[in-house]
Structures are given as C-alpha cells and as structure tokens.
C-alpha cells in the first residue's frame, strides 16, 4: 500500500498508509474499533477503491482491479457458508465457478479438508458443525483456490476464549504449511502477538508502528502503542545532561545519544520489568511507593502503587511455585520500585 487514502461519509478513515507485507508472512493489522484496519483490508480485497494511492500485489498495480480478478481471498468473521451445501461442496464452490476439472476439484478439496482437520466430515452440513469447525470450513474454502494473498477479518471473534486460543495455533500452523501470505485484522493484542511475523499498529487511520511482535511490545514507539499492546507505566520525564529525570529528581536512565538537548519526554516501563524491594535495600534507579491494591491472578500477582508525588505504578510479579521464596506484599506496605535502565523506553509521541 503506497500513500493510500480513503474517506467514508465525509470522514478520512485511512490517512496516507504506506505498508509493505513480505511474501509468505503472517502479517497482522492491529488496532481499536474505528482505526481503519477493516477499511484497509477491504481495499486490499478490492471491495473498496482508494481515493488516492496505490495497491500492488507482487509488483502488479491492482488498485482498480475488481475483487474477482484479484488473486486474493477473504475469510470473514461470519464465515458466510452456504447452509444447503455440504462441507465439501462449500469448499469446492469457488473451484466449480472457475470450471476446474472435477478430478482436480476432488483432489484439492480433499487436501484442503485434510489441512484443516475436517477430512472426516465432508458430507456434514454447516449447521451440524461447531463454531470452530465452521471457521475451518471457511478457511479451507479460501485456501483451496491457492490465492497469492489471504485476508482474514477478525475470523475468531465469534469463538469462545479457549477455542480462540486453540485456533490461533492452528491458523499459524496452516499458514506455515501452505506458505501463503496472510494479512490478519484484529483488535486482540494476544492474537496478534501469538500468530504474527510482523504487526502494524493502527490508530486514527494511520500506522503508528510496524515490527516484529517482540519489538513492538518491548520497544513501543508511541504512548498509544505502549498502552494498546499490553499494559505500560507511562511517566513524564525531562531529558537533562544526557539522562532521563523524573520530576522527583530520580534518574530513570542514562541516554546520552537520545537526550542530548533538554526537553520534556515520556517514557514507558512495562509492569513485568519493574520489581519490588524493601525500602533502602537496593542500589540503582528506584522510586519509593506505597502498595494500594494487590490482585492475585494465579500465575502472577498484580500490584498497584502510588508514590508520594501521586505517580501511579503497576508492577506484575510471577508467583513462585512449590516452596520457592518470594515476598508477598500487602496493601499499605511501603516499598522501593526498581528497574533496569535498559528496560526504559523513550517514546517519540
């Protein structure tokens, strides 16, 4: 997508997107409702035409090419299966419209159903299947055409949590096996982090950051990305003499190359990168705070704290197993919150 702009109802929904997806990647477009991700997907599919800019598929400009002439298939959240057709007939539908020879249809439908673990249900009707199985039929119907690009518009949104997590792993397995480029639209951060080779985070029609899931999570480029993907402690700081300094005078990190000039900046520290210690028991950067709330969440404990200056902090600690140590804090305890300077991220916006 090169300089793609699209307005709907007098409002700019996609505002100058530049985006490159590598062949064979599982690429996710992640963002909140109304950010423009589904509109972007619909332009890739050919259902919408950009007001300006270009869309290229393996080097060919397809900006004005209608959907049926693009080598692209789409899987929707609703699946859009034909209730009167069997599983095999649903999967074969596109091949029959293209007048593919019957022996090849039989072979390719069989391979597609094998791929999605439905080889034993070719004669079942969609209403006889579970939600996860119907999702697999929709996926097989799209894959059987061997498109250059497969678009997926929140296809797991109607599934319950356990099945959704199972299907995340299945989708990634299938994508690796077929080697087709997937572009996946979602508002679910866990889905994007779990499945993607690359993630583009969208906000208000623009792309805030593109990168590997670990990069986007560990090194967010903006406050929006830091907040939207996971949880983050956002702190106001001042760049001074090569260091990042909080209002209390605490040096958060030394960054001579980043903060050569004095300026107000924002920094992000993920909750799991912070640690709790008894007051005065550790050296290095730290903030004195009081525990306000403790939430035991099984694998982790979530602490909410506040400094004397009113700075709110969230700290997440893994719960030790067996007889392992680990000090449990309670509401009202005074602690030092500590971190490693390398885990402090300076935000650009």
UniProtKB/TrEMBL annotation:
Tell me one Pfam family matched here.
ABC_tran
Task: Name the keywords, alphabetized.
Answer: ATP-binding, Cell membrane, Membrane, Nucleotide-binding, Plasmid, Translocase, Transport
* Keyword Repeat carried by entry: no
Q: Which domain of life is it from?
A: Bacteria
**What are the ABC transporter domain coordinates in residue numbering?**
1-229
Q: GO CC: one term?
A: ATP-binding cassette (ABC) transporter complex
Reaction(s) catalysed (UniProt annotation) = ATP + H2O + polyamine-[polyamine-binding protein]Side 1 = ADP + phosphate + polyamineSide 2 + [polyamine-binding protein]Side 1
As recorded in UniProt, its EC number(s) are 7.6.2.11
> A GO molecular function for this record?
ABC-type polyamine transporter activity
Mind telling me which SUPFAM superfamilies this protein's record contains? Answer: MOP-like, P-loop containing nucleoside triphosphate hydrolases
Q: Which InterPro entries match?
A: AAA+_ATPase, ABC_SmlMolc_Importer, ABC_transporter-like_ATP-bd, ABC_transporter-like_CS, Mo/tungstate-bd_C_term_dom, P-loop_NTPase, PotA-like, Transp-assoc_OB_typ2
Q: Please explain the role this protein plays, according to its UniProt record.
A: Part of the ABC transporter complex PotABCD involved in spermidine/putrescine import. Responsible for energy coupling to the transport system.
| Subunit comment | The complex is composed of two ATP-binding proteins (PotA), two transmembrane proteins (PotB and PotC) and a solute-binding protein (PotD).
Query: Of which family is this protein a member?
Result: Belongs to the ABC transporter superfamily. Spermidine/putrescine importer (TC 3.A.1.11.1) family.
What name is this protein filed under? Spermidine/putrescine import ATP-binding protein PotA
**Which species?**
Streptomyces cadmiisoli
